[in-house]
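dumping this here so i dont lose it again. seq + smiles for pyridoxal-5'-phosphate
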Amino acid sequence: MRAHPAGPRHGDVSHPVGAPPQPHSTEASLELDRQIWPQTAFRAAESGSIVLGGCDVRDLVTQYGSPVLAMDEADVRARMSGYREAFDDPASPAHVYYAGKAFLSTRFARWVGEEGLRIDVCSAGELACALRAGICGEQLLMHGNNKSMDDLEAALSAGVGYIVVDSFEEIARLGFLAERDGVRPRVLIRVTLGVEAHTHEFIATAHEDQKFGFSLATGDAAEAIRRVLALQDRLELAGLHSHIGSQIFVSSGFEVAAARIVGLLADVRDEHGVELPLLNLGGGLGIKYVSADEPPDVAQMAEVLREIVARQCANLGLAIPELAFEPGRAIVGPSTITVYTVGTVKPIALDAGGVRTYVSVDGGMSDNIRTALYDAEYTVTLASRVSTAELTLCRVVGKHCESGDIVVNDCWLPGDLTAGDLLAVAATGAYNRSMASNYNLIPRPPVIAVRDGESQVLIRRETLNDLFATDVG
Ligand SMILES: Cc1ncc(COP(=O)(O)O)c(C=O)c1O
């Protein structure tokens, strides 16, 4: 069974893949959809090549090699500050934690801090990266469904603002470490609400069959709250957390989730006589990968989420808690493009008639696993020249020894595509480089930030020496 494009836990909502509608002309196919491509991207009129942050992608490939991930710094900074402004309303303050799993590097983490966001980390590695960037521990929140003693010790010694506990074992481990070290960390309980939301759909059920959090339906969440409160000399229970899915376009899933989690806040008040001050509603806001996607307006979504919580709290006689959100994809996803060089072009006759042209590029599943993992869809375009050739149905594939090594399943590209042409894939900022691997011992590509005609390296290209740095020979 295929996984849902939004996440591996959603195997039951498979994503139909088929050829997108054929653009009515080659010229139309070369236009850049403003909502899919980074804010500063445009196609130069004369050369036809794509310019991002004032840098021609052909020059980036000459300077940094191919493939290359190019990140529009102005775009990503605007989204960071835009999310902060949208969610952190003066009337009801909220904190926005950038979800570092989407993409993290030391300089990038600094930008997050400069734009007034906090960071959600989910491993000792992501924590170390944020600290290396000079982000103070108080600005961090730590996730993870199986945090080791080492992870928890790292979180405590960094003084992270919140630890989101995810299992009974973790509560016991954390209680032990807190007593040993004489600290009292602030804790959120991750609650599984029986709500899964993706794109236009959401499913609300009583039971959960996945690894994250404490189930509301089985009573595990209530028990976790009891256990943390029983250790309150060592652990400070600050609030509740939920994350209902990814690539969400509508607020209906949040509505059900908010009703359930605010209900739990009321249960805590009734059973224990405490009103927990913080509610973290996770991340998951969607972005536009292909023209059929319709992501929500950020400010409107923030407003809707605030209203939903306020209404539920009013119904139950609770003070509105401080809110927190954890967007990842929506901040970094649209800012980045991956530029590949075409190596081979192979027309293949299809059993059903017609031809599909396999266009092999110099990267693939090692820099973008999402297509193979989730049948994710992407928009791709010829990036280095103009063409008036007729469009042909193509599949953009990588160079790995795996037939599922597909970058873009079905797309329309000019029929004169040839070795040496550059292709650009849009919206590759989130869960591409951060999920990259060294499959086939291929060095991972660099991430280059571009702005006002200047480029700077965020992560350099790996070398063969990097690959062998851990191979003891
Ligand atoms: C707990 C939690 N918060 C935030 C996120 C970020 O989600 P997104 O990148 O879809 O906004 C995730 C993604 O898996 C998550 O698990």
